[in-house]
Amino acid sequence: MQRRDFLLAAAAAPALFAADERQGDMIYRKLGRTGERVSAIGLGGYHIGVPATEQESARLIRSAVDRGINFLDNCWDYMDGKCEVWMGKALRDGYRQKIFLMTKFDGRTRAATARQIDESLQRLQTDHVDLMQYHENIRLEDPDRFFNDGVVDALLEAKKAGKIRYIGFTGHKDPVVHLRMLEVAQAHNFHFDTAQMPLNILDAQFRSFAHQVVPKLVEQEIGVLGMKPMAAGNLPRRGLATGIECLHYALNLPTSVVITGCTNAKELDQAFEAARTFKPLSNAEVSALLAKTKEAALSGKYETFKTTTMQDGTARNPQWMG
Question: Is the pTM of this model over 0.90?
C-alpha cells in the first residue's frame, strides 16, 4: 500500500477507530503496544506556562484532567523549567495519580541525560514519569548520539530504577531524521514506545511525517503522538482551517494522542469539542481540507518549525545537549 493510499484508507475505514473508547466528551486510545489507554487529546506543556499566574495555569491543568484529559506533555527546557514546576504544583492533591505524564530531555550524553531526568522529576514533584522522550531529534546525527553517546544507557538505568516507564523520541524538522532513528533503533534491536512529530493539514503536502513516518510507526506498533495540529497557530490564524478542523484532521490519522496547546478556558473548550464531535472523515472531507490548504502548504512557509531554526531550542542552546 502506498503511503498516500494508506492515509486515504485510514480516512475511509471506521475499523481504524473501532478500538476508540468514549467517556463523556473524551476519546481514549491505545498507546502503541504499551497496553496503556490515553486520551486522544493531550495537553501541551509549553502553553501551560503562558497564563499570567501559576494559579491560572493550575486551574487550566486541573480543569483539563477533571474533564477527561489524562495525557500531559512537558519538557525539561520549557521556559527554563517553569512549565515543569508549574505542572508539578498543579498535580498535587491526587492529580498526579489520575494522569499519564510525559516529559522530554535534551541531553546527548549519558551524564546530561541522567541529570535532566532527575531535574524533571524534582520539578514535577513525582518519583517517576510515565514517558520520557528524547527531544528534538532534528539532526541526522541525533539518532547516532542517542545510541552511541550513552543516552540510551542512562534511560535504561532510569527505567530499571523506576524513574521512567516508557521511552520515546520527538522531532519537528524533517521526516528523514525520524526514519533514520527508526533504522538505527532496529540495528540496535531497540523498540521505542512512542514517537512524536508535527501532524497537521499542511504537513500532508510538505515534508510529510504523516505520509513517510506514520505508516512505519503503525507497522511497528509505536504509539503515534501528533503535535502542532494547527501548525503553530498558522492554520486558524490565516483562515486556512478552523481549530476544530485541524484537530479533527489529526484525530483522523492513526494517532494515539494529538497534543494541543491551551492557554485559556476557551482553547480547552475547543479541544473537548473537537473530541466530542469527532467521527472518521470521509475521503471527500480529507481531500477538501487538503485542496483548500495546498497552495499554503507547498512552500513550507507556514510550518516554520520545519523550514527555520525558530523552534530549534537545542540549536540555540547547545549547552543543553551536554
Answer: yes
